[in-house]
Amino acid sequence: MPATASPPALRSLRVSRLPVGIPRRSVAVRCKVASFAPTILTKLQKECATPLPVLRHVADAMAADMRAGLAADGGSDLQMILSFVDSLPTGNEKGLFYALDLGGTNFRVLRVQLGGKDERVIASEFEQVSIPEELMFGTSEELFDFIASGLAKFAEKEGGKYHLPHGRKREIGFTFSFPVRQTSIDSGILIKWTKGFAVSGTAGKDVVACLNEGMERQGLDMRVSALVNDTVGTLAGARYWDDDVMVAVILGTGTNACYVECADAIPKLQSHNSSSGRTIINTEWGAFSTGIPLTQFDRDMDAESINPGEQIFEKTISGMYLGEIVRRVLLKMAEASDLFGESNLEKLSTQFVLRTPHVCAMQQDNSEELEAVEAILQDVAGVKSDLNARKIVLEVCDTIAKRGGRLAGAGIVGILQKMDEDTQGQIYGKRTVVAMDGGLYENYPQYRRYLKDAVTELLGSEISKNIIIEHTKDGSGIGAALLAASNSKYEHDF
Ligand code: BGC
User: Fold this and answer.
1) Quick check: is 384 catalytic?
2) Residue nearest (by alpha carbon) to ligand 1 atom 8
3) So which domain of life are we looking at (predicted)?
4) Is the pTM here over 0.85, yes or no?
5) Which helix H or strand E contains 189, and what residues bound it?
6) What separation in Å is there between the alpha carbon of 152 and the centre of ligand 1?
7) Pairing mode, if any, of strands 255-262 and 278-282?
8) Are 240 and 43 in contact (CB under 8 A)?
9) Strands ordered across the beta sheet of 255-262
């Protein structure tokens, strides 16, 4: 029987486990320590609550911060980066193109043979390689050598349906999913790493030049025709199939959104002239912070992160962090009460040991005894639990997922609201598609539902019928290849 199977017990507190605010003399008396876990839970639920007024405030602040970021560089938390993508895929694109996608724990290489309006995607294939952890903390050369060698191996296997016209270099759409100050469609300076990357020697450099140097060292002769953020790749990939796509959002390890903006709504746009009158703006909304309900757990996690004070929205809503927030809450509960009995808390004290997929898997457990929850707590966090404890754990998971999903929904409405205000109802008054990608959205049904509920609550049922949130799996790879095609250095044969 689990050590905590007994009902809320009376036992002495150990001094080292004294919760804040409990007078030291209480050590001598016996108190109902088990009740601390529900108390912490109630406080957590209160602090993480996102009722409609909070959502509304977040959506309004998102719209206001977008405007401030468009007015001037550094005008708000949102960088509102010009993507230099002024025209989206039309369907006419033809030829062989590659895409390289670096953005999380994996990098992905892809090739696609495009056949124009009639044949569309004739063939496509990809490979995914996980990035060894040490490379995330290594040097720029090591990382780009690794990527270039993966690309070289993949390119060697080309054959079958893939054809490159004589005399042409293979062209790549490079999806680089970190904040980059774009200097042209095929160059951009890394502003900072996010999502746990801390590679030395890349910040402040042109990432395309870094890749080119890596390819040169590998003896690989390919050319980057488009450098894009994953949100921009997703927007392009989704637009290839659906003209109503106006916004793209990534909810995965990290988070971000981009959207189609009118060039004359960008005061900071000076030298760059858009031929179409429109351009895609990469908001870098992960850095947003206004009005987000935060707890001490969030603040502690932020303070101990490799980028304190940065990416607050991302740290509240994205896959890299939800599990870690839950772990911190559970640890606090375990320290303040007998939630996990006499379990050794060493494993649970390890940062990032509980990942968002574990939290999600626990929430899918419909068994009466919550056996999957029990197994994850035991195997991943090293703690024993009784049914009561498992129920509390699930409440914690739900609280954190709910806040994340609802805030993500409010962020999306903030973007739509800004677009709608500028276009006199062109967004809310017709079908508008938000293309979504990322493992968090794809794999976490409760999170997805919370997000959609928040969008409906904010927009009302009539308008929300026009707003379609659509999952476009792997759109960013194909999207980057499509943007390589439309920005090809060779004469277009379409
Ligand atoms: C990066 C964005 C990226 C997002 C999703 C964030 O950490 O700053 O550039 O789009 O993650 O991958």
Assistant:
1) no
2) 178
3) Eukaryota
4) yes
5) strand 187-190
6) 25
7) antiparallel
8) no
9) 81-82, 278-282, 255-262, 245-251, 432-437, 467-471
Name the token pair of 185.
């469609």
Distance (Å, whole) CA 247 – CA 435: 6
Contacts of 243 (CB under 8 A, 6+ apart): none
Mention every residue, 6+ apart, whose C-beta is less than 8 A from residue 423: 262
Give start and end residues of each alpha helix (H) in 304-370: 312-317, 319-336, 356-363
Question: Beta partners for 12?
Answer: none
Annotation marks residue 73 as catalytic: no
Q: Phi and psi at residue 244, in whole multiples of 5°?
A: -90, 0
393 burial via Cβ count (<10 Å: 0-12, 13-18, 19+): buried
pLDDT (tens digit, 0 to 9) for every residue of the chain, 494 residues total?
A: 333 333 222 222 222 232 333 333 333 333 435 678 899 999 999 999 999 999 999 999 999 999 999 999 999 999 999 999 998 899 999 999 999 999 888 899 999 999 999 999 999 999 999 999 999 999 999 999 999 999 999 999 999 999 998 899 999 999 999 999 999 999 999 999 999 999 999 999 999 999 999 999 999 999 999 999 999 999 999 999 999 999 999 999 999 999 999 999 999 987 667 778 999 999 999 999 999 999 999 999 999 999 999 999 999 999 999 999 999 999 999 999 999 999 999 999 999 999 999 999 999 999 999 999 999 999 999 999 999 999 999 999 999 999 999 999 999 999 999 999 999 999 999 999 999 999 999 999 999 999 999 999 999 999 999 999 999 976 788 999 999 999 998 865 44
Residue of 230, 302, 420, 437 marked active site: 230
Tokens at residue 113, please?
Answer: 């043979």
As a whole number of angstroms, the distance between CA 82 and CA 246 comes to: 16
**Those residues with Cβ within 8 angstroms of residue 389's Cβ, 6 or more apart along the chain or in another chain:** 4, 37, 339, 340, 377
Greatest alpha-carbon span in the chain:
85
Could you report how far apart the first and last alpha carbons of the chain are, in Å? 70
> Which residue of the set 65, 101, 186, 195 is catalytic?
195
Residue of 194, 207, 234, 259 to mutate, ligand 1, most atoms within 8 A of C-beta: 194
Instruction: Report the candidate in 241, 109, 89 with the shortest Cα–Cα distance to residue 172.
Output: 109
The answer to whether the beta carbons of residues 362 and 396 sit under 8 Å apart is no
Substitution candidate for ligand 1 out of 199, 207, 230 with most atoms within 8 A of CB: 230
Residue nearest to ligand 1 atom 3, measured at CA: 177
